[in-house]
Predict the structure of ABC transporter substrate binding protein.
Amino acid sequence: MEEDTMKTSSKLTALAMAAAMTLSLTACTVGGNTGGNPQTSANPSGSQPAEKESYVVGICQLAPHDALDAATQGFKDAITDALGDAVEFKEGNAGGESNNCATIIDGFLADNVDLILANATASLQAAASATDTVPVLGTAVTNYGIALDLDSTEDGVLGGNISGTSDLAPLDQQADLLEELFPAAEYPNVGLLYCSAEPNSIFQVETIQGYLEEKGYTCAQYAFTDVNDLSSVTQTACDNSDVIYIPTDNTAANNAETIANVVIPAGVPVIAGESGICSGCGVATLSIDYYELGQITGEMAVKILTGEENVSDMAIAYDTTLTKMYNEANCQALGITPPEGYEPIA
């Protein structure tokens, strides 16, 4: 009997010790949780995820030229200013070859990047085809609806994983600038020079043609397919035009010197859709600031990376600061004096 009593006492002691240990572990768990709230460490549904310590951002740029270079730099500077060394950039330049964009984007996805910058239309199209989950921001894209073959060509909130910034300067104001410098009474024939492989260029040419014809100009379109027929098409445009308009066309921008070698000897002035083309072959432009456009895109990227906003809720953004600019060397070569209010292209 005495032995049974001792066994019972030992069992009760063991149970008491186990209970005490359980209470102790529970107290440690609660006490070690910041704020004393055991639900915080469990990250319940609906709470914001913790901000990452580092990010990887892929940048796919279609070609190396001034406008796109400036947009990329502005993008990187805006992110670095906000997040410092927490961001690693992986960069790829397609060298003007659209097919190379897909290879670059696939490499980014293999590296598990957190966000992709698609600089220019071909880069955006490649990114849109490659992923519907990784956030994609475009920049230096004129019209997203046309670039992505959407039902609507109105740039707003696209939804899904894509947003970005547009480089479109108002085409009606560009038509006004052309009229200011080259009135229809003296320069009645306007040649519209563009690459037929770029849907955004087609959109710009067709739109500005309407504005120019309302002002009394006679317009003709001159489309080149790539750099191989650029010189011959440009020469044809010069032979039949008093002034030429070139939209924000990536192929033209990447080969502006080739165009200049035709238009300057022919004595035909070029109004360009942006400052990069104008610095190569134009005399004047109404242009946005591509560095500022890149910065706007970078600020959007920071909000996405930190979880402040979702890319699917972001509307296409614009640089609303427009500047009348002129190419001093080309103006001198053609005997053109721009009116007051035009800034020289640096």
